[in-house]
Structures are given as C-alpha cells and as structure tokens.
From TrEMBL:
This is enoyl-CoA hydratase. It is an enzyme of class 4 (lyase). Could possibly oxidize fatty acids using specific components. CDD domains: crotonase-like. The keyword Lyase applies. It comes from the Bacteria. It catalyses: a 4-saturated-(3S)-3-hydroxyacyl-CoA = a (3E)-enoyl-CoA + H2O; a (3S)-3-hydroxyacyl-CoA = a (2E)-enoyl-CoA + H2O. SUPFAM superfamilies: ClpP/crotonase (SSF52096).
Length: 258
C-alpha cells in the first residue's frame, strides 16, 4: 500500500483533509495530489458531507510543489505527463464548499492550492508567496491568474517578481484571506465555519459558490443573469419552502438538502 500522504476524517457534516508530509513541509508531489484528489471526490460523493476543510501542519500548509522531484524534469516530461499540474484542478470539480485552513508556509503550489479553495482562513503564523521565480520558473498551478484576481495586479506582480512572502496581516488586508485567527484556534474556527455552511441547504451552498465563481469568469450582465437563474431555480427546492416557513414560524429550519 502506498504511504498515506493525506489524512481524511469527518467532523459531523464536515470532511477534514490534512496534508501529511510534515518533514517535507507538505511539498506537493504527484502521489499526494492524487490522494488529495481522491479524498475530495470521495467527500463530494458522500451525502452526509456538506463542506470540506483542507489543512496542513503547524509549520506549513504546503511549501509548494516538490522541488526535489521536479529538478531534473525536461519540457517533455512535464508537458506529456502533466507532472505537477496533473490532478490539480480536481478541487475545482468539487461543488461543495471547500475552505483552506492555513498555518505556516503556503508557498508556490501551496499558495495556489489554498487559492483554489473557496476561501482561506489563516493562522496569524501564515505566510503566503509565489517564490517560483527564485527557482528559475514561474507559478504553474494558477498563481499568476488567481493571485491578481484576489489581491490586484500591483501586489501580485510584487509577490511573483520578487518572490517575497507576505504575512497573514498583509494577506488579510489585501483580500487573499477571509479571516486571520490565533494559530491555536485556527483549525477550530475553520471547522466551525464549515459546520455552519454544512448546516445550510446544500443546493443553496452549491449555487452560491457557482454564482460567486461566475463573477470571475463572465461580465456583470452575464453574471447577474446566471445568479438570477440560480435564485429562481432554488424556488424548486424543498429547502426554500422549509427555510422561509421556518422564518415565518419563528423556528430553526431543518434542511433536507434537496
Ligand atoms: N519541495 C521539496 N522539499 C521541500 C520543499 C519543496 N517545495 N519545501 C521544503 N522542503 C523540504 C526541505 O528540502 C527540507 O527537507 P530536508 O529536511 O530533507 O532537508 C524540509 O522540507 C524542511 O525545509 P527547510 O529546511 O528548508 O525549512 P526552513 O524552515 O529552513 O525553510 C522554507 C522553510 C522557507 C519554506 C523553505 O523550505 C523553502 O523555501 N521551500 C521552498 C519554497 C518554494 O520555493 N516553493 C515553490 C516550489 S515550486 C512550485 O510550487 C511550482 C508551482 O507553481 C506548481
């Protein structure tokens, strides 16, 4: 059996995935990414799971793609086999909300992995960066595309061209992370946020996620139309009837996720 490079467990309706290569600061190799992809798709297929949290260790969410593994690869190796980027976009196939819970380093592919999640909750120890330029390459898993969308062109250029790291406070100021929490509370906070989300109607959560993502991929009029159609569609769910009836009856809704 291959080594367990990720740990997968459930906390109520939350699926918790922990990157588990601590000695290499969770450097992302193909095996780890394959295992991560499989764990994500397993939670996606489980009705009892409503949201997912991906986390790393105290020292590193992930310090990037595995430099030792890639150092001798040729263009043809990476082009034909999609080494490094193979399986990376699996996370985008997941329709349930995914939170990145980041402590320590989130560098290179680690920062890109966090940015592929729906939002990032950071410990005050978190450090983000795209240092690939120092290795003679550039970000290869979306860093030059997702970072400017998150923090704007100026800071994205600064980070990708100098390779410097930004701390949690700067990351929050610039809009990369949604919240910064004391390191010892960070995972609890992320699981609590995921638990709240998992308690909502799953169709609503999926459509909210799809609609916000559409804001990055279309013009305003197209995005508004997409949102409106999703809003209309939710009137076909049992959960809309339950959510609104519960409000009127001054009780908590019991969503059945349909
Ligand atoms: N790949 C492979 N191994 C890595 C790694 C990586 N990205 N990052 C850290 N490690 C390993 C180190 O080699 C070291 O292993 P050994 O104990 O066997 O020597 C171990 O993790 C601990 O690392 P350090 O001793 O370097 O720890 P440190 O505290 O002194 O420094 C660090 C921490 C600043 C994060 C430093 O490890 C570092 O700069 N890592 C590389 C960061 C990087 O360049 N990431 C981008 C990778 S390229 C990429 O991600 C491409 C892409 O876009 C897809």
């Amino acid at each position: 059996m291959s080594e367990a490079l990720i740990l997968s467990e459930t906390r109520g309706r939350v699926g918790l995935i922990t990157l588990n290569r601590p000695k290499a600061l969770n450097a992302l190799n193909n095996d780890l990414m394959d295992q991560l992809g499989a764990a994500l798709l397993a939670f996606e297929a489980t009705d009892e799971i409503g949201a997912i949290v991906i986390t790393g260790s105290e020292k590193a969410f992930a310090a990037g793609a595995d430099i030792g593994a890639m150092k001798d690869w040729s263009f043809m190796d990476v082009y034909k086999n999609e080494y490094i980027t193979r399986n990376w976009e699996t996370i985008k196939r997941v329709r349930k909300p995914v939170i990145a819970a980041v402590a320590g380093y989130a560098l290179g592919g680690g920062c890109e992995l966090a940015m592929m999640c729906d939002f990032i909750i950071a410990a005050d120890t978190a450090k983000f960066g795209q240092p690939e330029i120092k290795l003679g390459v550039i970000p290869g898993a979306g860093g030059t595309q997702r970072l400017p969308r998150a923090v704007g062109k100026a800071k994205a250029m600064d980070l990708c061209l100098t390779g410097r790291m930004m701390d949690a406070a700067e990351a929050e100021r610039s809009g990369l992370v949604s919240r910064v929490v004391a390191a010892d509370k960070m995972l609890d906070e992320a699981i609590e946020a995921a638990t709240i989300i998992a308690g909502m109607s799953l169709p609503s959560a999926i459509m909210a996620k799809e609609s916000i993502n559409r804001a990055y991929e279309s013009g305003l009029a197209e995005g508004i139309l997409f949102e409106r159609r999703n809003f209309h569609a939710l009137f076909g769910t049992d959960d809309q009837k339950e959510g609104m009836a519960a409000f009127v009856e001054k009780r908590k809704p019991v969503f059945r996720h349909q």
